[in-house]
Structure formats: C-alpha cells, structure tokens
Amino acid sequence: MAEHMSKAKLAKQDVVASLVEKFKTCKSVIIVSYKGLTVAEDTELRNQFRKAGVEYKVHKNTLIKRAFNEIGQTAFDEFLNGTTSVAFCEADEVSAAKVVAEANKKLNGKIEAKCGFVDGAFADANMVKALADMPSKEVLLAKMLGSMNAPISGFVGVLAATLRSFVYAVKAVADKKASE
C-alpha cells in the first residue's frame, strides 16, 4: 500500500514538473472552464486545438495550482475550481485564445476562458478575449509590410512619372531639332 501511494505521489510530482516546464516554455497558457460537453463536441474541440498547434489537456486544479505556485504565480489560485482544462501554445500568444473564443460561440458558452498566462504574466478573462480578437502575427506582419511598402510604391511611381516626363521632354526637344 505504501509503495502504491509513493507511485501516485511520484506521478503527481511528474505532472506538476511537466506543467511547470510548459508554463515556462509556452507563449500562452489558457485556463479553460468546460461544462456539459458531449463526446462529439469534445472531440471536435480537441481537433480544433490540434489544427491550431495547441496542446489541450484536462488536469486537476490542485496540480495546476501547485505548478503555478512553484513559479511564483498565485493570481491563478482563485480561478482553479470546477471543471478545468488547459490549452498550451508554444508558437504564439493568440492561437489558444482564438480557439477557446470560437468554441465559446459555437458551443453556446459550454467552454470559456477563466484566465491565462501570456508571456509569463497573468491575464484575466477580458485580456484573453482581447487576445482572441487580435489578428495573428502573420496578419500583423503582412499589414505592417503592406503599409511600409505603400510609401515605397508611391516613391517608385513618382520617380517613374518624373523619368517619363523627362523622356518625353528629351524626345520633344529631339523632334523639334529634327524638324528644323
């Protein structure tokens, strides 16, 4: 019996250590509340997380709390009650929040963000919703490059027009000289 207890305790310590590592390496961690999901809905939700490159797991509140406390984060303690799952995203800050927000709409509130851990800082539910509304990094980069490209395109257009005007002027002078 004592051996069994120590195995269970070791397993819990492994889960906490794994969570601590994920909290340190992921750009965003969303703490999710879920209630009343059917098996089909849960399967679809997990597929959406997978497609977005997000790892989604159900963990015990006490283990999540212990892992956050190990890295000096106590702001999560009050949110770790009821049904809790965790969405981990190593790639970016917004993907996990976007999947949760879309699932919230699609599943009529059966799933919602309680809070998050984004770039090493606590984020309340409103901040997580704001993250979900943000465009992805790729979209932001494309917009930025587009806005940077616009003045360059305009400058090239002005140069081309100036060059065209110069060519027309030289041609007109050459035509005039030829007709004299």
Topology, number of strands: 5
The DSSP helix count reads 6
- The CATH homologous superfamily of the largest domain is termed Ribosomal protein L10, N-terminal RNA-binding domain
Helix content: 55-70%
Which series of helices and strands comes N to C? HEHEHEHEEHH
Low-pLDDT stretches: none
Shape call: elongated
- Spatial order of strands in the largest sheet: 2-3-1-4-5
Q: Please outline the major beta sheet.
A: 5 strands, antiparallel
Q: Give the averaged pLDDT, no decimals.
A: 86
Distance between the termini: 115 Å
Which second-level CATH architecture of the largest domain applies? 2-Layer Sandwich
At the third CATH level, what is the topology name of the largest domain?
Answer: Alpha-Beta Plaits
Count of separate structural domains: 2
Tell me the radius of gyration: 28 Å
CATH class of the largest domain: Alpha Beta
State which percent range the strand residues make up: 15-25%
